[in-house]
Every structure is written in C-alpha cells, then in structure tokens.
C-alpha cells in the first residue's frame, strides 16, 4: 500500500525518535567474484574415446576396411616402442564402466573426442605415417573422431545395445554427477584428395537423413568447381594436409553445423569444446554462438586456438566474436615448463594469468591444462605432476587433465610415439595405487568443495623459487569465502608466514581439517610439506579494508 505524504512524515519522525529500537541500515556486501558462469565450478577429465577402455568388444569391427583395414595398426619404433593409428576398441561402455573412477578423482565433467561418424577405411592417400612422424595422414584411420562425414550420426565403434549417446550422458549425469563435453569440428571433414582411387566416405558430408550433401570426389581444392552443388561445402584452398576445408562463407554450412550440434545438445551434451577454432573466421562463430545460446543461454564453449600469443587467442573470448572461452595455451607452456624442471621459479607462472589489464573477456573462464593429445605429454617426475595438479586446481581457470596423467602415463611422448596409446582397464587399476593419483584426488576434491577456488578472485602474495602464496576470494549476495593457498614444490618442507590482507576469525585447513584462530593483528604461519599444498579457508564477509581495496582494484581492472 502506498502511504500518503503526511503518514510518511509521521512514520519517519517515529523512527528517528525511537531510541530504544535502533534500525540498522546495512549496505549490501561488495561483490568480489571472478566469474558467475556455472561451468566454472567444473573440473574436466579429457579422454580419447577410442583409446580409453574397451568395454564392449562386440563393437570393435576388427575386420572393417578390406584392403585398408582399420583395427590395431601399430607403428613400431626402437626398443620395442609402439604407437597405433588404428581403432583400439574404446567405447561408451568403457567410459561408463569407469565413471566412478573419474568422479572419485574429483572431476565433474568428461570431455570426449568427437563421437560422429568417420570413414570406414584407413586413408590411402597423403604421405605414409611412421613411428614418431608428424603432419602425415597416410595409413591412418579416424579413430580420433576428427574426420567427420556425418555430424548427426554416432560412429559405429562407440555405442552398445541400450547405450547410445543420450543413454551415456544421462547415466553419467544421473548416476555419477558428471557432465559431458562434446568435441566440435566445423573447420574440416575427412581427408579428401590424393587417394590412388576414391575411397568411400572420404571427402564426403552426409545430412541427418543420410543424404549425400557434399563430395570432394578425390579432387584437389583447386580442381573443385563453384558450379558443382557437391563442391559448394568446401573452400577451394588447402588448409590442413588433405582434409577437406569446409566453406564457412556458405550459409548452408553454418546451418548444417548449428543443426548438428543442436541435435547433440538435446542428447545431453552439457558444454562444447571447439576444435581448430582459429581456422574459422570470427563472424561464423558469432552466428554459431548466438543461435545455439538462443536455446541454451548458459552454454559453455571453449575453443582450441593453438597459439601461445594471449592477445591473439583472447579475440575469441570477446562478445563480438561469439564470447567463446579458449584453452589457455600460454598457460600450458608456462605450467609445463615450471613443473618439468626442479630448478624453476614459481614466478614464471605470473605472466600468463592476466588477472588485470589482460586481453581476455574473463581470465577466470579459461580452461587450463599442461598437455593434451596434440602435443608432447608433460615430461615431469611424479612430484612434478603432483605440483602441477596442486597449482592447476587452486589457481584461476577451469582445470583440464588428459587421461593417464593421474599416473604419468606415456610422459614426454608425442602423438605417434605413444601420446595417444590405448590406456585400458589394467592401467586404470594401476593408477588407483599411484602417488600422482592419490595427491590429485586430494586437491581436486578440495576444489570441488570450495567455491572460492572455482569462482573467486585471485590475489597473489608471494611467488618466488619453490614457494607460492595467494588468496582466492569469493563474495556475493549469498556467499562469502576466502581461501589462502600455500604451495611448495621443493624437496623439503617450507615454513610460510602470511600477514598481508590477513583477516581475523576461524581458518580451517581443507586437507587436514586443522583449525586456527587468527586475531586482529596475527599472521598465519604454516609448514608446507615437500611437494605439498595447504588450503586455509575462512567463511564470512571480507572486513579487512586493505584486502577490500585490493579486491576492488582486481574487479576494476579485470
């Protein structure tokens, strides 16, 4: 009810004169938040679907391909080393059978390589691949999933009876609390030319109804005709090896991929990872993003812009270019370098963070990692992996860990030296007993339980030699939490003392459960084990003025 002016005046006078009942006028707490995006709470386990676990041998198609077989095609190196360019049997059943293993490590999402239909033969064109070779596709298969021919259809190597993609995503979500990240490719299809004779499916694109929409016809890009309807899906310039270069200027291509990935979102995909995003112009991604987010407003997308220039890859994150996050390649370079060398300095990590005045739309939404399937695996000791995980799961960004890293699997190897070797159930069982796994599980589950480590601002304190200290602070309308992270990558324990920005109150260490009461002028002192991490958390509103000023500066210049 709206009061008349006279009633308002009387009411105001009554409040002023009521000394026995003081009225508090509390201002809303300041907002100190790195990101509000829901997906920032996730931690991602990345796996190559075919190379994870063979849970159902009946879908292996071991005799597929005729003269160009597709199953188990080893590349032999020196000293008995092997890699493989054929299918190895990994499937949806293998993922689901090990969902508890992934969840219990502290991960909340699984990124799988593309699941769409790929050719049914090994590629007979190009230059033959050999052990340790690179940038050659001759003799390889589409086991990795990136040679799509029908982007509406699941490849026959992955599903089982009663376990199609929608069944997998639902089971992961409902039974294990795991989201599924779909790997997206729009830049290219399969290898499309240089074959001795044209092979089925290679250079072809099919629609949802199975109709042939495009066919390279084993012609070089320069030989394609603008007048041939089957050629209009392709650019007439080469891009990556012999892969078809899809025509992002053709509206029909955009329509095709929007429809295809809408389909997989209805099948339960929760987020999208975009392959080779820098090979496709920004205007394509802007339209792609707008059309998908019209139906899925909070859809999280992150792209692979394989470049170590932050100013370059940051362009994808801008709203005008689609607002798509990226894998933090500058961060990967720094993380791998620091944790692969015992004499490195924590200070070498600072430059890639871009916590203020940076090029990214929001640095807290980047996906952070130290290696993947397209580069050499990190060549670190067990302690190096442990230190890397302690950093990855406490610093800004959304952590991504490549399958097998929980036991340092095939460390130091590139793609055709073992980087993508079959992991398998036996290795997973071994990993559960590995020291890297044990420490990863501890810190990943701390991040899972502490919102400040997921979405809080990062305020750095000390980065020198083997020690690092920083705060992660989260304060919004409904939560207020401060985490103090203390890291030691040295071989002996380190004593650390933090006084700056220290807030009085009860602090609880998340790995040990220890509690410390801090007074108004106290510092927090702690002993950090060799290759250890300590995460002290205080619940409650930020009251220390110097800290509030520093956080306001982070927000102002983010």
From TrEMBL:
<keyword id="KW-0732">Signal</keyword>
<keyword id="KW-0479">Metal-binding</keyword>
<dbReference type="InterPro" id="IPR017853">
    <property type="entry name" value="GH"/>
</dbReference>
<dbReference type="GO" id="GO:0046872">
    <property type="term" value="F:metal ion binding"/>
</dbReference>
<feature type="domain" description="Glycosyl hydrolase family 13 catalytic">
    <location>
        <begin position="46"/>
        <end position="447"/>
    </location>
</feature>
<dbReference type="Pfam" id="PF00128">
    <property type="entry name" value="Alpha-amylase"/>
</dbReference>
<protein>
    <submittedName>
        <fullName>Cyclomaltodextrin glucanotransferase</fullName>
    </submittedName>
</protein>
<dbReference type="GO" id="GO:0005975">
    <property type="term" value="P:carbohydrate metabolic process"/>
</dbReference>
<dbReference type="InterPro" id="IPR006047">
    <property type="entry name" value="GH13_cat_dom"/>
</dbReference>
């Amino acid at each position: 009810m709206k009061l008349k002016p006279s009633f308002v005046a009387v009411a105001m006078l009554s409040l002023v004169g009521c000394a026995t009942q003081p009225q508090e006028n509390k201002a809303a707490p300041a907002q100190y938040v790195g990101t509000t995006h829901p997906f920032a709470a996730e931690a991602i386990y990345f796996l190559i679907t075919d190379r994870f676990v063979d849970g159902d041998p009946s879908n292996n198609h071991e005799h597929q391909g005729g003269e160009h077989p597709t199953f188990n095609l080893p590349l032999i190196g020196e000293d008995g080393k092997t890699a493989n360019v054929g299918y190895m049997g990994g499937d949806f059943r293998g993922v689901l059978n090990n969902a508890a293993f992934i969840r219990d490590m502290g991960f909340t999402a699984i990124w799988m390589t593309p699941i769409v239909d790929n050719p049914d033969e090994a590629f007979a064109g190009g230059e033959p691949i050999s052990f340790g070779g690179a940038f050659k596709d001759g003799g390889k298969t589409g086991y990795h999933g990136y040679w799509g021919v029908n982007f509406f259809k699941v490849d026959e190597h992955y599903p089982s009876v009663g376990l199609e993609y929608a069944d997998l995503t639902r089971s992961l979500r409902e039974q294990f609390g795991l989201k599924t990240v779909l790997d997206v490719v729009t830049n290219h299809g399969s290898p499309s030319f240089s074959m001795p004779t044209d092979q089925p499916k290679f250079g072809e694109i099919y629609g949802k109804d199975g109709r042939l929409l495009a066919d390279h016809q084993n012609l070089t890009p320069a030989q394609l005709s603008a007048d041939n309807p089957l050629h209009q899906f392709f650019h007439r310039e080469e891009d990556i090896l012999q892969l078809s270069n899809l025509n992002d200027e053709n509206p029909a291509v955009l329509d095709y991929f929007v429809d295809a990935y809408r389909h997989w979102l209805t099948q339960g995909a929760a987020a999208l990872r975009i392959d080779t995003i820098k090979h496709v112009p920004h205007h394509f991604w802007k339209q792609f993003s707008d059309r998908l987010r019209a139906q899925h407003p909070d859809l999280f997308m992150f792209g692979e812009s394989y470049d170590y220039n932050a100013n370059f890859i940051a362009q994808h994150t801008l709203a005008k270019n689609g607002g798509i996050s990226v894998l933090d390649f500058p961060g990967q370079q720094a993380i791998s370098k620091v944790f692969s060398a015992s004499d490195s300095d924590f200070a070498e990590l600072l430059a890639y963070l871009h916590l203020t005045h940076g090029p990214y739309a929001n640095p807290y939404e980047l996906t952070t990692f130290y290696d993947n399937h397209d580069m050499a695996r990190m060549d670190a000791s067990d302690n190096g992996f442990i230190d890397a995980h302690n950093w990855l799961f406490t610093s800004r960004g959304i952590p991504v860990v490549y399958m097998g890293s929980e036991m340092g699997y095939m460390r130091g190897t590139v793609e055709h030296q073992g980087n993508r070797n079959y992991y398998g159930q036996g290795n997973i069982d071994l990993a559960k007993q590995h020291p890297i796994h044990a420490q990863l599980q501890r810190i990943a589950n701390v991040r899972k339980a502490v919102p400040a480590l997921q979405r809080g601002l990062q305020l750095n304190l000390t980065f020198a030699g083997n020690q690092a200290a920083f705060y992660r602070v989260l304060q919004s309308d409904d939560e207020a939490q401060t985490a103090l992270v203390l890291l030691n990558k040295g071989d002996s324990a380190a004593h650390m003392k933090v006084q700056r920005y220290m807030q009085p109150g009860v602090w609880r260490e998340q790995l040990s459960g220890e509690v410390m009461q801090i007074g108004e002028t106290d510092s927090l002192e702690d002993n950090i084990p060799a290759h250890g991490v300590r995460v002290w958390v205080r619940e409650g509103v930020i009251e220390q003025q110097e800290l509030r000023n520093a956080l306001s500066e982070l927000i102002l210049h983010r």
